[in-house]
Design a protein that fits this description.
- The structure holds 2 protein chains of 2 kinds.
- By secondary structure, chain A is α/β, with parallel strands linked by helices.
- In chain A, 46% of the residues lie in helices and 18% in strands.
- Chain A has 2 domains: 209 residues, 3-Layer(aba) Sandwich (Rossmann fold); 127 residues, Response regulator (Rossmann fold).
- Chain A has a 7-stranded mixed sheet, with helices on both faces. A 5-stranded parallel sheet of chain A has the order 2-1-3-4-5, sandwiched between helices. In chain A, strands 11-12 form a two-stranded antiparallel sheet.
- In chain A, helix 2 runs parallel beside helix 11, helix 3 packs parallel to helix 4 and helix 8 packs parallel to helix 9.
- Chain B contains 11 helices and 4 strands, in the order H-H-H-H-E-E-E-H-H-H-H-E-H-H-H.
- In chain B, a hairpin with a 2-residue loop joins strand 2 and strand 3.
- In chain B, helix 3 crosses helix 8 and helix 5 packs antiparallel against helix 8.
- The longest helix of chain B is centred in the N-terminal third of the chain and has 31 residues.
- The radius of gyration of chain B is 19 Å and the shape is globular.
- The chains are: A alpha/beta, B mainly alpha.
């Protein structure tokens, strides 16, 4: 009996030692993404991408000799779950967190990562994300203000629409983008006839659209997510509203086209160029590897933006020769030449914003594919 | 006026979907005095079952016949699931305190919801365009073919159910079981069969409602049952829970109320107003619009 007890204790000791050793030897990378819920498509794309990059880095010997261990947490696209995820990932000892997809979730988790000194890189485009002065936050996409400026310029000065409607949901991202776009349109002398809000996931947007119809718009700009955008477009066409439909960047997802069905044709989406159009070898190789491993294209550009954020941080660790997060951020903000990324060159400004970014307007064709309508 | 008529059409469309789902709540409550919280998730499940039947059984056929077969097969499948649900989750608790059965219903709701997630995944699934996108424009009021189908089919089903319950012998047995189960049993009515029948009818109507949601909105998620279940539940209470015509009227009224609030006040406030309406109804007329005032036995 005593011997059995001793053996059990010894085994436990051995296990904890091994666990301790392996803990010391891995670089823990957290993924905070909406793996379930309305944005699951995007969330799974982020997780898949991070796991693929981790496997590729590990195959080449890891980062400074350490293997990457990926720890994923599902924030379901809700702020509440995001806050829980942040605490959980910090407790598990991650050095950096990739995600989340939505600005709302990235924002809800930001402070926890900042307090713990954990780097966070998210594709969230809400301007507020970089306005809090958290040095731990690195935006791997481009802020709403840049997209709003482009969208307003295009709608007002290129297409010369006279009666523009701006719609958003209530999320940090969508509301921010819509407000910025509305302000930019007005600043350029454009006419916003209505600024409406819909409730995400409520599916029935016809009452709001019916009111919009009476204002007789010639363009609708929707700053929201694809899961609502596709239905909004379908219901717009069903109501016989002839206005041109412009979806903001978060509508850039294959599900938008599927949801809108035959109504998708002729809708426009404003975003940075899509994954398939990325010209560099590094992008082509990564997307090919992704397809080989998961049997599908990355759902959108957003997952790849997040992968670029992760690559940048790993690059900084390797250049510095240590895992000091503060030094890594300093390095990324003072690079002599930008790092070549999947989604274009990567460099960060002092406030954590990614520098650069060009937008395109894409028209959805009859077969659901994109055609470039206008390139910045 | 255009806006008013358009909102009226919108309201009637969603209202008839609410009404179909509400019937499932109200019939079960009428006979068993149980709020079947799993009903909303059954509705969500039927949309997924319909999608699978479309892709796997029907080979993505989109003819009228194929659509009818999809509706029938989905209703049949969900009727079976409904009967199994009653057997497993409710019958063992028939004589238990009312609260136990409600907890069991909530548990069944979670099991079905997570079951959908396990089988079909957490991603939003997209329903095929089975009804051609045809629209008619009446002086600015646009009505689509799918809206007409939803409205007409719902009304036909509700009328059929009303006639079945009011005019047939089995319908009389259902009414008897809802008034007093013990007395009904003494009259030679097999109450277990009646309850099974209630679940078959309720689940089938819910299945049609679920398919309508899929056909009308196109995007279906595993957790959408809660939202539709809640609305239908409110519709059932609005019309008088346990009362079949009440559920129909409650569903239609709720749909119209929602459309007009969203259209004339704000879509943001539609939900809040819906619950305010529910509270007002409960204060002013706790038994609902058509519910009968039952004298309390002292």
């Amino acid at each position: 009996m005593k011997r059995t007890l001793r053996n059990i204790l010894l085994t436990l000791c051995a296990i904890s030692l091994m666990a301790g050793l392996s803990w010391a030897e891995t670089l823990k990378v957290g993924v905070q993404a909406p793996i379930t819920g309305s944005y699951a498509n995007e969330g799974q794309g982020i997780e898949n991408g991070v796991r693929l990059l981790a496997a590729q880095v590990n195959a080449k010997g890891g980062v400074l000799g350490q293997q990457i261990e990926v720890i994923a947490c599902d924030d379901q696209g809700t702020a509440m779950a995001a806050a829980i995820c942040a605490k959980d990932l910090v407790n598990k000892g991650v050095k950096m967190v990739i995600g989340s997809y939505t600005s709302t979730c990235a924002e809800a988790a930001q402070k926890t990562y900042f307090n713990a000194g954990v780097l966070q890189t998210s594709d969230g485009t809400a301007d507020s994300l970089t306005e809090k002065g958290y040095w731990t936050f690195l935006r791997n996409s481009f802020p709403n203000s840049a997209e709003a400026e482009f969208a307003a310029e295009y709608l007002v000065n290129v297409k010369k629409y006279q009666r523009i409607v701006v719609i958003s949901d209530f999320s940090t991202y969508a509301d921010g983008l819509a407000n910025a776009t509305e302000a930019a349109i007005k600043a350029k002398g454009g006419n916003v006839v209505s600024r409406d809000k819909i409730k995400a996931d409520s599916q029935n947007f016809t009452p709001v659209l019916t009111n919009i119809k009476s204002k007789n718009p010639d363009a609708i700009f929707f700053a929201g997510y694809y899961s609502d955008g596709g239905q909004l477009r379908a219901q717009q066409v069903a109501l016989g509203i002839k206005a041109d439909f412009y979806g903001g960047d978060a509508n850039d997802n294959p599900d938008f086209v599927k949801l809108a069905g035959s109504a998708a044709q002729g809708a426009f989406i404003i975003n940075v160029p899509e994954p398939a159009a990325l010209p560099t070898p590094i992008a082509k190789n990564f997307i090919a590897d992704y397809q080989t491993k998961y049997g599908e294209m990355p759902p959108s550009i957003w997952g790849l933006m997040n992968i670029d954020g992760m690559r940048a941080i790993i690059h900084a660790y390797e250049q510095n020769g240590n895992f000091d997060n503060k030094k890594a951020v300093e390095y990324l903000q003072n690079m002599s030449a930008p790092l070549e990324g999947i989604t274009g060159s990567i460099a960060f400004a002092k406030d954590g914003n990614r520098i650069g970014g060009a937008y395109v307007v894409k028209r959805i064709q009859a077969d659901g594919s994109y055609a470039n309508e206008y390139v910045q | 006026m255009d806006i008013f008529l358009q909102q009226l059409a919108n309201g009637l469309t969603i209202g008839s979907m609410f009404a179909l789902v509400a019937l499932g709540y109200t019939m079960v409550y009428g006979v068993m005095k149980l709020i079947n919280f799993a009903h909303g998730d059954m509705v969500a499940a039927s949309a997924f079952v319909g999608l699978t039947i479309y892709t796997q059984v029907m080979g993505q056929a989109t003819s009228l016949l194929a659509v009818i077969v999809i509706f029938l097969l989905t209703a049949l499948t969900m009727a079976c699931v409904g009967v199994i649900l009653e057997r497993l989750a409710y019958r063992p608790l028939r004589n238990a305190p009312r609260l136990s059965a409600v907890v069991s219903a909530l548990g069944a709701s979670l099991v079905i919801q997570n079951g959908i997630m396990l089988v079909w995944g957490p991603r939003m699934r997209i329903f095929p365009e089975l009804v051609p996108q045809v629209y008619w424009d009446f002086n600015g009021v646009v009505i689509s073919m799918i809206q007409v189908i939803i409205l007409v089919l719902s009304l036909v089903l509700m009328l059929a159910l009303y006639l079945f319950v009011e005019k047939t012998r089995v319908g009389a047995a259902v009414r008897a079981a809802s008034i007093d189960q013990d007395a009904a049993r003494l009259m030679g009515i097999n109450v277990n069969s009646i309850i099974a029948l209630i679940f078959i009818i309720g689940s089938s109507l819910g299945a049609v409602g679920g398919l309508f949601i899929g056909l009308y909105y196109r995007g279906i998620t595993f957790n959408m049952g809660w939202q539709y279940g809640l609305y239908a539940f409110i519709a059932a209470i609005l019309g008088g829970i346990g009362n079949i015509p009440g559920a129909m009227i409650g569903g239609m009224l709720l749909g119209l109320f929602n459309a007009f609030i969203a259209g004339y006040v704000s879509s943001t406030w539609a939900d809040a107003f819906t619950f305010i309406l529910l509270i007002l109804i409960l204060i002013v007329r706790p038994t609902g619009i058509l519910g009968e005032r039952v004298a309390e036995k002292v």
